[in-house]
Amino acid sequence: MSISINAAFDSGNIRVTGIDGDTVTLEIATDHLSDFYQWFCFRVAGAAGRTLTFRITNCARSAYPGGWPNYRTRVSTDRQDWVVAPDTTYTNGVLTWTHRFDTELAWFAYFAPYPLDRHDALVARAARAPGVTHRELGQSLDGRAIDCLEVGTGPKHVWFYARQHPGEPMAEWWMEGAIEKLIDPDDAVAAALREKATLHLVPNMNPDGTFRGHLRTNAAGVNLNREWHAPSDERSPEVKCVLAAMDRTGVAFAMDVHGDEAIPANFLAGFEGIESWSEELGAKFYAYGQRLAAATPDFQLELGYEKAAPGRANLSMSTNQVAHRFGAVAMTLEMPFKDHDANPDPVRAWDGERSKRLAHSCLDTLAGMIDDI
């Protein structure tokens, strides 16, 4: 039986450029109408009993070439349990790994995928929980729902939103953890938070890009996290409907959940460069990060992005726009594709389950300081 390589499924992305014996040569396809690419996900059939070597040859020109050194490909034989390919290497722009096929099928991905069927199941399960309201805030360019789950009765409006960049599935794994905690009737911390805040959760802001196997853009090739200053129906209805909902409720606290290709750590990015920056508001952001670092070894404060200079913040990005527009304690949470090097896992690296547990810590931290926000 010949080898079959397929990416024609939800979140799939790869292009076969050659098969020579036991060596498979591949390229990652760009996002539609965009030059961005880095996300890959594909299935291999017909290789049982063989050991194959895979080579992705166009990594040097990808969106974030600094993401490849020390990165390890994820592998699964059941689409549930994802582990790393321990022999993954990156040399001269080529990502290489080898896999021994003890099963008929295997899947390979940049990170454990979070496809739309899992998203739909999460939304359906949460929407049935007591005290949860589901709202369809709008639709994507391809007509997919922008789902929002609302829970809590408190006066402070808290917004969590994820996957503006669809090729960052750890963000929706995080959302699954947050939603599960918030609807758990036996979680006392969640109950206390629900009394003091109304929480709005948008698990996936870019379902079109998710389905298409994009790294960073929607169906029009637009980076949604550069649209928050002036979203439009033609380019970014996904942002437009979420921002309109925020305008209706106001925002006290907001977290935009992402993944970072290059930095091997979990970290926060803030809003230091906005013109309306105040030391009082900034102190609340810094306090949140300090408390989170004290709460879990899966978060740290040493690695992260450079701060924008005063008055130089990019207001097309959601964290800056939301902090400026609402006077909110806003932040971007970044999780790694590599591993959280301060607390590594040699078998799975950073993965979906660890992303879910980090969400629990984030909510615990928020609950401990909600009175001060």
Percent of residues in helices comes to 25-40%
Characterize the quaternary organization of these chains.
Answer: single chain
Q: Provide the low-confidence segments as ranges.
A: none
Q: What is the name of the CATH topology of the largest domain?
A: Aminopeptidase
**N-to-C span:** 62 Å
Proportion in β-strands: 15-25%
Count of separate DSSP helical elements: 8
Order of helices and strands: EEEEEEEEEEHEEEHHEHHEEHHEH
Largest sheet features: 7 strands, mixed
Output the structural class: alpha+beta
By CATH, the superfamily of the largest domain comes out as Zn peptidases
Strand order of the largest sheet: 11-12-14-13-15-17-16
- Determine and state the CATH class of the largest domain: Alpha Beta
The global form is globular
Q: What's the alpha carbon Rg, rounded to whole Å?
A: 20 Å
CATH architecture of the largest domain: 3-Layer(aba) Sandwich
Provide an overview of this structure.
By secondary structure, the chain is of the alpha+beta class. The chain folds into two domains: 4-109, Immunoglobulin-like (Sandwich); 116-372, Aminopeptidase (3-Layer(aba) Sandwich), CATH 3.40.630.10. Helix content is 26%, strand content 25%. The protein contains eight helices and 17 strands. It has helices at 116-127, 170-182, 188-196, 207-212, 237-249, 279-295, 318-326, 352-369; strands spanning 4-6, 15-20, 23-27, 41-45, 51-56, 74-76, 83-84, 89-91, 94-100, 105-109, 132-139, 145-151, 156-162, 197-202, 253-260, 267-269, 329-336. It has a seven-stranded mixed beta sheet, sandwiched between helices. A five-stranded antiparallel beta sheet has the order 1-4-10-6-7, with no helix packed on it. It has a five-stranded mixed beta sheet with strand order 2-3-5-9-8, with no helix packed on it. Strand 11 (132-139) and strand 12 form a beta hairpin. It starts with a strand and ends with a helix. The mean pLDDT is 98. The active site is at 334 (proton donor/acceptor). GO terms for molecular function: metallocarboxypeptidase activity; zinc ion binding. Its cofactor is Zn(2+). Belongs to the peptidase M14 family. InterPro entries: Cytosolic_carboxypeptidase (IPR050821), Pepdidase_M14_N (IPR040626), Peptidase_M14 (IPR000834).
